[in-house]
Every structure is written in structure tokens, then in C-alpha cells.
Amino acid sequence: MKRWLKISLKIIGGLLVLLILAWCGAAYYINKNNEAILAKILDQVNAKVNGTVEVSHMETTLLKGFPGISVSLKNVSLRDSLWSKHKKELFRAKDIDVSLNALSLIIGTINIRKVAINNANIYLYTDSTGYTNTSMFRTKDKKKAVENDDSASSLQIRIIDLNKVDLVIDNQKRFKLFSFYVDELKGKIKYPLGRWDGNFKLKTKVRSFAFNTRKGSFLKDKTIAGNMTAHYDDESEAIIIDQKPIKIGEDTFSIGASINIAENKSAFSIAIKADQILYRNVAQILAPNISEKLFKFGIEKPMDVTASIIDNGDKNSSDPLINVKMTVKNNNVSIPSGELKDCSFIGYFSNQDTTSKPIGDANSIIRFYGLAANYYNAPIRIDTFTVSNLEKPLAQGLITSKFDLSKLNGSFEEESFKFEKGTADLSLFCQADIDNFLFTKPVLHGKIIIKDATINYLPRNLKLVNSSLDLNFNQKDLNITNSRFQLGKSILSMNCSIENFLNFYYTDPEKIEARVNLSSPNLNLTEFMPFLGPRQAKRKKTSSKNAIKEASEQLSAALEASKVHLQLNVKQAAYNKFIARNLNAHISLIGNGVYFNKITVQHAGGHVNFSGKVEQLGAINKMQLNANIAKVSIKEFFYAFDNFGQQSITNKNLKGFLSANVNASGNVTAKGNIAPKSMYGKVNFTLDKAALVGFEPLEKVGKFVFRSRNLSNVQLEKLNGTLTLRGDKVDISPMKINSTALNFDVKGVYGFNSGTNIALDIPLRDPKKSADIIDKEERELARMKGIVLHLKAVDEDGELKIRWNKKKDREANK
Predict the structure, then answer these.
(1) Which CA distances in Å does 358 have to 348, 364, 387, 673?
(2) At what angle do helices 34-48 and 3-32 cross, to 10 degrees?
(3) Which of 65, 166, 479, 702 has a 20 to 30 A CA-CA distance from 268?
(4) Rounded to the nearest 5°, which phi and psi values hold at 516?
(5) Cα atoms found within 13 Å of the Cα of residue 464, Cβ hemisphere only
(6) Strand 606-615 to strand 620-633: parallel, antiparallel, or no bridges (unpaired)?
(7) With contact defined as beta carbons under 8 Å apart, do 512 and 476 qualify?
(8) What are the pLDDT digits (tens) for 620-679?
(9) Distance (Å, whole) CA 442 – CA 126
(10) DSSP 8-state secondary structure symbol assigned to residue 132
């Protein structure tokens, strides 16, 4: 063996022997001076605290701390000076292992190298007045502390090892509660001048992390694990935790913090960053008052999040300042009103929007910048969208979009609307309250432009083609301009104004009153008959719901419930056989009624004014009609209205001009046809320059008598009469009919199928014999001179028969 190696081994051996001897001496010293050493340790500690530190006894554990000397402190307790009042013990452990520097013991000082705490409880308590039991660490006797404070005896712990420790920070003044079960905390601490630096390994379960106990805990039941680096500066009295990755549950966050432990401060700030983390996992670590709201939303793929939590130590505020930034790219976002697909935005949250106002929900705000997404297949763009005052949330933002209407078909309720073509271009500034995460009381400014649209309104089986309109929203009002609608061959231009539309749309749609001006060069009224029919029966709804379907249902319901006042001006209108010119109408659609307030038309060479209503009941609807007819061609008039549902006197039997007042009611079908035998009411009429052509009862009289006279074409003088409509019968009030063929009196009942009983008093005298009598009274007396035939027309076996009207029958029917 070489000489230098032998010398080296001897030196090392000697040093080892000296170390063992020193260690044995220190161990002997501790065993011999157990109580004195413990008293010195307690004296050092108690000199630095404002309270009491108690240890029942100390045992030497020789091998644990080699080459240092380890002791085990039993039944360790730390109590502040006011413990007897609040009973919150700051520290309690059955066993603390302390590793001492052996050399320091030999020279008469205590230098603690390592502290290991197992199965302990730490309770940092602040009462409602602001007093805290950690104040025991404020020096109570500065003179004594100075006497005991030297570089050799300063209480500096180099290694910390905590296992199964309950740590609670309870601040009742500011309603904060932080509770941890520390499964493991291992760390090494260095003490450069005026500070300390530590590296720690942590694994703990969060039982409570409540910044405000009235609102619940963050990180509830979450496990936190990772490595931390911390620093403390004596001058600033602040602990700085470097921002490093740490696991919370299964997710990795980068977390850093600053904690001010100066007297009467307790300020802190926490910085958090997470890349590509799931939204749901973020929501789960927040307090219940926040997470239960966030769970109303969803973000499918991971996103980037940064946040800061800052408490400036203000004793008047129980909540910290929270700022959050969220970056979402090409994601699918679910919201209570549907889903935003391929969505990107940058979102910000702060619970102090205005710095001069206190932190809280009322001063909170959410901002979205550069939001782009497809909402029910419609691309939307929002430069800035905000939700402020989370106590009474108010949302506002400018929404723009341009899309094909057909893209909405999969989103609308199938029984409401269907789009075949057309485009929509919208630019709307929206402001609305948020109630249960849905917009209420919206205020809109802006415009929606629809062009070249084909729209099917399924409840009424209406199809609008080549249609365009501009919807202008002005706060709560809606105005529709530049509108063109084509229904079949009918083309209309429309302007519409609806006051307080948005107020009533969501709450009282029956209060909506739309004032609509319509004009058309040519209108086919039969194409609008679906308005008279019932709504199409809805198919059974599926369980799937979305906001657009709900909106379409609501829109459909609002359209049916609202009041619509139509002012219609048409150059020419057609309804089946009825042709009207210069139609001017004021029509109201209210509930299940169509009200014809005032309609004037030119028809059959004359004028017709009428009013009335149709009550929608289903396939058969009730109708009321009041009409004034002035000098219309009776032939054309009867033809236009299908002889009013009767076949006794038809347009083929009539010539001349009719003036009449009609007050009647009846039934009309969903297709707009008058139901047979349904009319009731009165018709007061005047016939001028009239002729009765091919009237069957009169022709039968001609076969019975007056065969030499032409009763197939009877020219009438001016005739006034009254007809009473009674369903399948018409009461004919007594009338004196003077014609070129004969004069006769008529009264009775005409039945459409049965019940006809018409009395005819026919003088045989030829009317031509009285033609030269000028005096009207004398001519009237002369018309019934001579032989008078008393006949009656009655039904027999479904055929009209002419019988003699016997005297007793005539007297019975007077």
C-alpha cells in the first residue's frame, strides 16, 4: 500500500473516531442534562413568543439524527396568551422529533437542525375582532429576546418533515376558512442574511379553501401534490412562493403566491396558470356559488386559463379580488340556449369592474372579445360582449351574422317554420337581463335584412315565396319596412310597426298590437283563407329541445296570440267568383277572431260596404256580416257569392240593379265557402230595372194559368222587399210585385229542401189595362180588380207543387 494512502486512511479513521466520541459525548450530555436542555429550548422559544410553549418531557433517540443528536418532544402544545377565552390551541402534537447539532451542545448552545412533526393539529385562529392566536409569535419581552438572541442561539430550523398534520386557518372576522390534511410536507431551509429560502415537497388534501364561508369552498376535497420553492424576507415580512407546476387532482397547474404575514396585514396574492385544461375540471375546483352556475355551460375541448386571486388585507372586504382570463379556440361551447360550434374567444372575468366600488357580484363583469361561432348553423360574430352585475346580470353586445336561411331548418321546431331559400343579414346591439341564464326584457338596436326568402309557416299552411323584409329594432319597438311578400299569385308590399314588441313578446304576447299597411295591385283572397282555418295539429314533441325550437314555438304562439290591425289597399281583389276593385279594408286579427272593421269595394258596377267577423272554431267557423250594397248588378252579385248558399233564386233568374242592407250570421268553411243552410238574419233590398228570368214557381203558375203571358221573363218595376234567413228556410215578407206579365202579392216560406209554403194572390187582370192610369192610388186599386187566383206553392214528395190556397188556409195564415 502506498504511503500517502496509509496516511489518508489514518486521518479519516482518526476523524471518524473523534466524530463518534463527540457524538457519544453529546448523547451522554443530553441524557445527563435532559431537563436542562429542554428548559433551554423552551426558554429560547418562549422568549420569542407571546404565549406559552409546553412540552411534557424529552427523550433521546440516538440513531435517528446521526451524526446529529435527535430528541423526541412529547405532548407539545402552543397556546397564545388569550387561549383561555377562545380555546383554540394553535398547535398540539403528541410527538415531535428534533435533530440537534451535536457540536452546538458541546459548546453550550442549542442549534435545531431538523424538526419532524407527526399526527399533529395546527389551528391558526382569528376572532371577529381581528385578534389572532398567531400573535404569540410577536416578541413579548424584547429585552429578554435580545439577551437570548445571538448568532449561535437563533432558532433556525434547517429541515422540516410534516406527516399527517391537520392545518386549519380560521378567520372569523373575514369569514375565511382554510383547512388542509397534510399527508406529507418535506423541506429544506437555508438562512442567508435577513431571509430564508426553502424547497418543499407537498402532498395535502383540501378540506376547505373558503375565501368567504358564506359562499362555500374552492378546491373542496381536492388533493394538491408537487414541489414548491418559497422565500421569506425579514424586512418585507412576506413569503414568496415561486410559480411552478403543481398537481390539483389529476390536472397540472402552475401556481405561485405572495403572503404578507406582517402584523395586521394578512394580505396575499395567488397566480394560477393552466394550459389545455378541461372546463369542467376548472369548474369543479371553484366554490359552489360559482361552480353551480358554471355547470350550466360546457366547453368540450381543453382550453388555456390564467387567474389571479388577490387579497390586499383590507379588513372591510371579505372577498379577494379575482381576475380570470380564458382562451378558447375552435371549441364547442354549450349554453342554456343551445350550442356554439367551432367557437373561439378570449374571455375575462373580474369581481371588481369599477375600482372605486367594493368587490362582489354587483361589481363583477364577464367580457368576451372576438367571439366567433356557429349558432344553430348560423355564423355569428361578436366583437365585445359583456355580462355585468352578477347579482342582477345585464348582458350586452353587438352581434353580426350573414347566412342562408335554410341552415336554420334543423334547428326550428318542425311544426312552425321551414325555409327553402333566402339569406339573412343581421347587425344587432342586444341588451338584456339574464334570468336563470336566459335572456329576458331584451332591448335591441339594429336591423335584420331578409332577402329572396321562401318561408313555410306550417301552422297555417302558408308558403311565402320570393319574399324580402327589413326588421328594424329600435329599443323595444319593431318596425318592418321594404317588405315584399308573395303568397301564390298575390304580391304584397308591407310596412309594419309594433310598439313595445320585446316587452310583450316574452311576458304578454296577447298585448302585442301590430299595425300593418298592405298594398297590392292584384290580390287573390282565397290564398289567405288559411287564416280562417284552424292551426295544423302538432305532432308529438320529442324530448330534444334547443333555444331556436323554443324560440320558434314562442314566436308561433306570439303570432297567434297577438293583435294584428291590417290596413289593406288593393287595386283588384278576387275571392272565388267575387271580383272587387279599389278594395280598402281595415281588418283586425285578435285571438281566434278575424274582424272586418270596415271594408269598401267597387263591385258589379256599384259599391259594397261591409263589416263583420269570423270566429275561428275549426273546420266550420262562425260568421257575422253587416253589408250595405248600392246599385250593383244583381246578376253578378248573386254569382259572386254563390247565390248565398240557396238555389231558389239564383243569378240565372235575376237581372237589374240591387241595393240592400244585410244583417246576417252563418257559418263559413276553412276554405272560405258559406256553409249551406247556415245563414240567419235579414235582407232588406230594393230592385231597380229588374227582371225575373226562369223563376220556377212563377213558371209553374204560368203553366197552370196565364198561358198566353210570358212568365219566363218578367220585367219588374222597382221592388222593395224583406227576406228573413232561417238556415234552410227563407221567410218572404208580404210583397206587391208589379211586372209586365202580371201583378201578384206574395208571402210565405221557401224551404231549400222542404217546408216551402208560399202564398200567391194573382189577379187575372192584365197589367197592361192599368198601364194608362196615372194616379198611383187608383192604379193600385185597379191591379186587384176582377178575378183573383189564390194559390200556394208547397213541397210534395220533394217536388214543388201549385195548389189552391183555400180561404180557411188564407185566414189561418193572416
Answers:
(1) 19, 10, 18, 70
(2) 80
(3) 166
(4) -120, 130
(5) 21
(6) antiparallel
(7) no
(8) 889 999 999 999 998 888 888 777 666 767 888 888 998 999 999 999 887 777 788 888
(9) 47
(10) B
